[in-house]
Recover the amino acids of this structure.
C-alpha cells in the first residue's frame, strides 16, 4: 500500500491532546521521526516524559510502533504499542492520530507537525 503523503523522515511533531494526561501547551512532548525503507524510529521528550524511544513500520498512511519512556513524575518505565493514522491539516502540515494502550486501557493522542524554521 503506497501513500500520497510525504515521508516522516526528519519531521518533528508536538503533542496537542492526549487521553493519558493533560498536555502542557508551553512544553508538550515532542517527537522526532526517522523513516527509511518502511521503517520508523525516533525519540521523544517533554511534558510528562523525561526520555522516550519508538520503533516500528509504515504501510501507506498508517504507522505501527512499540515505545518505551520514563515518566518525569516518578521515574517509572512505561512500554506499549500503538497505531497512528497520518493525516494532512488544513495548513498543509502532517497530523498523527495515535491509538495505543497504556495502563491497561485504550488511549488516544494527537500530534501535529512542527513547521520547519
Amino acid at each position: 500500500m503506497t501513500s500520497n503523503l510525504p515521508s516522516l523522515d526528519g519531521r518533528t511533531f508536538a503533542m496537542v491532546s492526549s487521553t493519558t494526561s493533560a498536555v502542557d501547551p508551553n512544553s508538550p512532548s515532542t517527537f522526532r521521526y526517522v523513516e527509511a525503507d518502511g521503517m520508523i524510529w525516533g525519540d521523544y521528550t517533554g511534558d510528562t516524559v523525561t526520555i522516550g524511544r519508538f520503533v516500528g513500520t509504515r504501510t501507506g498512511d498508517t504507522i505501527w510502533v512499540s515505545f518505551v519512556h520514563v515518566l518525569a513524575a516518578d521515574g517509572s518505565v512505561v512500554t506499549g504499542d500503538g497505531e497512528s493514522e497520518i493525516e494532512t491539516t488544513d495548513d498543509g502540515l502532517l497530523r498523527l492520530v495515535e491509538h495505543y494502550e497504556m495502563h491497561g486501557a485504550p488511549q488516544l493522542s494527537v500530534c501535529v507537525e512542527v513547521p520547519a524554521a
Observations:
- The two ends are 32 Å apart (CA to CA).
